[in-house]
Predict the structure.
Amino acid sequence: MSAIEREILTQPSYWRRAAQVAAQQAAHMPQAGERVVAIGCGTSLHMAQAYAAAREAAGAGETDAFPASELPAGRRYDRLVAISRSGTTSEVVHVLDAARGTPRLVITAVAGTPCAERADDLIVLDFADEESVVQTRFATTALALLLAGIGIPVDADAEAAEQALAEPVPDMTGHGRFAFLGAGWTVGLANEAALKLREAAGAWAEAYPAMEYRHGPISVAGPGTLVWFVGDADVDLVRDVRATGATVVTQRHDPMAELVALQRGAVTLAEAKGLDPDNPQHLTRSVVLG
């Protein structure tokens, strides 16, 4: 069994543990009504996107999410949340340096790193760290922490993920293109599902807000395309996508559990293609720029 497979299997228990950490660290988490920006790179960015949309939807306060490299200059926030598994990502370190004067919460898997040293508030999820280059467990555990911090229970997510893990792995072979569609906070999860297919399995995968799929991307759908809804599926959109000849999968689980199923599918597809899902080509655990 690969490291990433083992890490995927542990996620439900770690989400429950993250909820306990959120309760213990409540004073250091974003407070209701604060204007918050969440940043990250790659998978961490997608968790930031999901959190930002969920926080606003919960009425907890205005929340933006940006790639660390694209944070607009001059915007004022009450708190910055930086997600970085390694704590060494160059773009995140740069933002933390530039954001002095704004309370900076860093969520990482490793203490004593450049990101951790720049934090005003620090939450180290070292129990969720990973061997695999490809992120799964740390990212979803960080998201569970943040969701619990805005009062969203994660027990149901964990139970749904356990059910998803007990089911057969989704079969993604036989498809040449993949599209993942979300809405609201699940857009970030759809982005992450597509990234897992690209990273682990070298697949041609993309993601969109669901209702945007008609506005151009549907033109490349057809036989051999798998379109997967991460979140609620509009019946008219499902009808239109099926008319292209694409295979359509509508949400079967809670969105976070659906992501777990898709992580497993990405690993299985990688192995079917003879790839090492723990060590994808051209990728390293952290991007540190010279």
About this structure: The two ends are 35 Å apart (CA to CA). The chain is about 40% helix and 15% strand. The beta strands are 36-40, 63-67, 79-84, 104-108, 121-124, 177-182, 204-209, 225-229, 247-249. Residues 255-272 form the longest helix (18 residues).
